[in-house]
Design a protein that fits this description.
Blueprint lengths: L1 H7 L4 H13 L13 H22 L6 H11 L3 H26 L4 H12 L10 H26 L4 H16 L11 H10 L5 H26 L12 H8 L1 H27 L10 H31 L1
Helix pairs in contact: 2-5, 2-6, 2-13, 3-4, 4-5, 5-6, 5-7, 7-8, 7-9, 8-10, 9-10, 11-12
Amino acid sequence: MKRLKKFLSSDYLFPVLIIVVLAASYGLQVRDLGYYLDDWIILEAYKMGGVERLANYTYAVARPLVYPYWLLGFSVAGTNPIAWQVWSLAWRAAAAIVIWMGWRKLLPTNRITTGAAALLFAIYPIFDQQASAVAFSSHWMVFTIWGLSFYCMLCAAEKPQKRVLFTILGLLFFALQAFPKEFFIGLEILRPFALWWMFKDQDGSIKKAAKWWVPWGAALATYLVWRLKFMPLPSKGDRNAPVVIQQLFTEPIKGIVSLVKMTTQSIIEGLAGTWYKAIDPTTFTLERTAEFASWVVAIGLFVMACVLIWRYKETESSEN
């Protein structure tokens, strides 16, 4: 009982809950899943030509540096579809946990809020291609690494005596995730605001945040120059051309309008459209055993999470 009480009051509760919830939400299906979409292209490249052919494929699709992430997956999972599903799901859990670690730094007194948000983030239904494990495992890998970069930045702000160490580590993580894939480069806009939040109780917080953001701004600028000018591209052109970023330099007003429009649409889709699809009443049925069982699991997980969080809150309150 003492161990349980200690566990319920510790920060281990939410990472464990994230793993359990993801295992029940997606892990129960891994035996029935296989390969989908671009999985087959990546598998063909690796099986037919190894590292060289895989590298050539990533170059052909204008992401020349992403192949090491798939090679790491092949070294762990081989060509076993179940192993790939577990591999991708493990990185999804890692991403949720690392992002939660950053939130805990920003909001150290809001343990319930950050924990609940991390649980919601872990199963957020806007990403509907989890089953394509080979192709999209790399997304979760680079997202996790971005989270580590963000966490290191916050650690540097929290512990100025270790600023150099954490900044170097954070910049290394930034490079490892930004150069292979640009999917999360937009999140860089959060850094100056996060730094200001860390320094908000100090004099000159805005000026200090701007000063501490300099290395991250320089890293972002370096990446943009490489991406727009020096990244090697196939002869057929850049299929992933960052059109909006290019517009910001060539046609600033048009680029800003496009960016605002896309951001607004994404926020509306994330807050309303995604959840509407997830709670569509027609998905609730008693006729099909699998669908009914999924609802039982979902409701059971929800009740379990609520009870544990409630106990966590009670334990936290008794300690204070």
